[in-house]
Amino acid sequence: MSEQSERKRVILSGIQPTGTFTLGNYIGAVRNWAKLQDEFDCLYMVADLHALTVRQDPAALRRHSREAAAMILASGVDPKRSILFVQSHVPAHTQLNWIFCCNAQFGELSRMTQFKDKSAKHPDNVNGGLFTYPALMAADILIYNAELVPVGQDQTQHLELARNIAQRFNNNYSPTFVMPEGYVTKEGAKIMSLADPTRKMSKSDTNANAFILLTDDRDTITRKFKRAVTDSEGEVRYDPAAKPGVSNLMAIYHIFTGKTMEEIQHEFEGQGYGAFKEAVGTAVADGLAPIQNEYNRILADKEYVDTVLKEGAESASRIANKMIQKVYRKVGLLQL
Ligand code: AQP
User: Fold this and answer.
1) Using N-to-C axis directions, what is the helix angle for 113-121 and 156-172, rounded to 10°?
2) Helix ranges (DSSP H) in 75-191
3) Are 158 and 137 in contact (CB under 8 A)?
4) Atom number in ligand 1 closest to CA 211
5) Is the CB of 28 under 6 A from ligand 1?
6) Ligand 1: distance of its center to the CA of 25 in Å?
7) Closest to 71 (Cα-Cα) out of 94, 44, 48
8) Is pTM, for the whole model, over 0.85?
9) pLDDT, tens only, 236-264
10) Domains and CATH numbers, the chain
């Protein structure tokens, strides 16, 4: 990173390679990452270790990790300006995780709602990693002394825990970690499932009609939007509580066209949902086309993607290894 960029604040964000990215991942996360590069020193992480808290097919996980990197690059992240790496390529994350596991309290980990949610979703695999996941997330952030972390509502509790862990460590030893803050992007829309608009769109949803994948072709995108669950009112109006399906489609249309909710409402007045759904599908397919072209181009060059990831891991490790040495020394681990 340039000398001038040393004055920028550090921001860290990650995404799990648990599948092909959805439109939700794009709108809520990856789309914003390229823009953040102007203002911040950015670290972007393919969070493969976090993905292991849920059972993964090894071959698919490997494939998804490389695809995730290619999609992040295709979305505009520039590896010359930002550090893009795979979490497991920087072992200091897991080293700090252990120190934090020994700092985080059973009570505070038990209160994490995501642990409760994921345990309920995967009752046959309530593993220790799922329970201590927030300690690893704290390590991801604090190992780089990231000042800002873009978080959705579902992650604010984890960020709070990271702050508590940092505070406790600083008090018990000596000032080491900066307090990370949540960073809310201007258009941080939460995109809902097309099949059940009361639930968020998720890449691991078993119903393929619930999500738009960033790799879906135009026909698939159009078809999925046509099938999207709405309501029987037939009026395009923004009201997330009463009309979650229509409001979700309006939010998506707004993001891809820049039109306001009033403009959208006016555009489809008296037309029912058919024309509206068609327009949303077209706008999304048009908007994703250049990213898909770029993604296919980048992914075809496996060597390039791997070089970016290798260099990213080296840059990240340089920062992370310094921190882990410092932490090991402070907690009293013998250093030779
Ligand atoms: N539906 C969504 N709307 C807006 N933002 C979303 N994100 C995920 N879904 C939506 C954002 O994407 C980033 C990466 O998420 P992740 O892969 O680390 O985990 P996740 O939030 O659990 O994403 P998924 O797609 O739902 O994955 P699975 O199905 O594996 O659990 C985060 O910034 C998240 O806010």
Assistant:
1) 130
2) 92-101, 106-110, 113-121, 128-142, 156-172
3) yes
4) 1
5) yes
6) 5
7) 44
8) yes
9) 999 999 999 999 999 999 999 999 999 99
10) 3-189+302-331 (3.40.50.620), 208-296 (1.10.240.10)
